[in-house]
Amino acid sequence: MALRLYNTMSSQVEEFVPLRDREVRMYACGPTVYGYGHIGNFRTFIAVDMLQRFLRQSGYSVHYVMNITDVDDKIIRNAAQDGVSVQQYTAKFEKAFVEDAAMIGIEQPTLVRATEHITQMADFVARLVKKDIAYRTEDGSYYFRIASFPQYGKLSKKDFGGMLDGARVDLDEYDKDSARDFALWKAPKPGEAFWDTSIGPGRPGWHLECSVMSMEELGETFDLHAGGEDLVFPHHENEIAQSESLTGKTFARFWFHVRFLLVEGEKMSKSLGNFYTLRDLVLKGHKPSSIRYLLTSVPYRNQLNFTFDGLKQAAVSVERLRNFQQRLSTGTFPSGSNPAMQSLAKDAGDRMKTSLEDDLNTAQAQAAIFEMVRSANSALDASEIKQDDVPALLTALEKFDEIFAVLKDDDGAKMKAVFDWASSEGREKDISAELREAVQSGRFSEAEIEKKIAEMETARRGRNFKVSDALRSELTGAGIVIENTKDGVRWRRK
RNA sequence: GGCGCGGUACCCAAGUGGUAAGGGAGAGGUCUGCAAAACCUUUAUGCGUCGGUUCGAUUCCGACCCGCGCCUCCA
In angstroms, rounded to a whole number, what is the distance separating the alpha carbons of residues A50 and A411? Predict the structure, then answer.
């Protein structure tokens, strides 16, 4: 079996084979850095991250590029409102994006910035003009002539046949040849930031940057181009038009689009009051691992309904996996190996792989790991696990986590970082009691905890339960769970 | 209006032409000084509605109802 992915271009699931033997070149449309990233953004970026992780796990080397849109209308407007330069404004939110992406377990792609490719973009426009594919309007803007690209609409399956002759001229766009023609380059408006270039002053249109930067980094034809489903039209359609009409070659071979998520059953929007940035959720006391788990649990092409109930459920699911991992890694086992456990681990690994190869069916991959966990827990209870089975089972878990990235318990540190950020921004009022508590639970050091546990054990051995119970509740109050097992005491932070 | 997606148990959510994964929650039980973890049993003769094809459909086809997305630089 090989990886099969849905390709928006062909509207069907196809076998994914990169152009070069063991190398995948892929590009994702990244954020416009005009604010903090919301969970919808991160659903998309996490989906692409999982794809990228799975490709690597499957043995490919992956050249993964993501753009940062650091110039556009909203940025210019917001920066002006805040009374700061565009650069200051975008630097702040780009930094926030990188931090947030790391917090949610995204492996950082090669990031490229629009403002650092202005020259190349101007050249690109000039070349299109030379081929008579682009034209300049009176104000100094440049537009792409859609009539010059008959395949326009092939990605979004739109038929522009009757609309290309200029019959419907939009009154606002007075000097475009056709209403559908899109801006490659925008002439400066009074007071706005602009660049002086070979094609005149101005700034790039949105679509241009992705064509220029992806081809610069990955070549004229590369393997896969990703983004949210809203980008199919017009953004990606326009990228294809300008890129392919310039090179005469296929631009991206696979088009990977992630479905929008719903929040509490409705489209996320500020007016509905269900708009959440990643930081909002952490401020409410939710763990990054819970958020990531929930976002990974529904296959990327299905609608995902993000709810707070679901977030709670996700937290428990992650805990179940972590408990199992801890149980295996802290237990003691007789030497030897149990064939049943060996094949259990192998089957789980195989099923995970098969599921992910099937257009990244993450829900099934999760089911596979949970089935293994249940069986292995049973075996653990029955003392049927031998020393040599432990690494096999742990490896299956690690393979799972190479894709899902939810097992590493670094939630506390991440939440502390958000706590500190909110404090430094003067947003103490946004810090929930839950987050405060979660951060507080870090107040005991490992050494202190170990010491208290030792005291507790002494008390328990002396059947002095009053003392041991008091110690237990003190630790529980600090978010530390103590488990007394046959193999000794095991503890973890909740 | 054009194009597309979906409606599966209390919640989230896979899936298949032959009678429904997984997680959470609830109930009962085992284990246990307490606690926690874990395990077992249990919760859809049912997969939006109505027809059709078929030996047989939740899975294929048609109609309808409901929800959602894109078609205005929102991932």
Answer: 20
A494 near A479, Cβ under 8 Å? yes
- List domains and CATH numbers for chain A: 4-258 (3.40.50.620), 266-404 (1.10.730.10), 444-494 (no CATH)
In chain A, which residues have pLDDT < 70?
1, 161-175
Residue keyed to tokens 């878990």: A397
CA of A358 to C1' of B58 (A): 22
CA–CA separation, A277 vs A258, rounded Å?
18
Q: Could you tell me if A430 and A283 are in contact, meaning their C-beta atoms sit under 8 angstroms apart?
A: yes
With CA of A238 and C1' of each nucleotide, the nearest comes out as: B73
| Global ipTM | 0.95
Question: What are the pLDDT digits (tens) for A326-347?
Answer: 999 999 999 999 999 999 999 9
CA of A145 to C1' of B56 (A): 57
Strand B: list positions under 7 Å from protein Cβ. 2-6, 11-15, 21-25, 33-40, 67-75
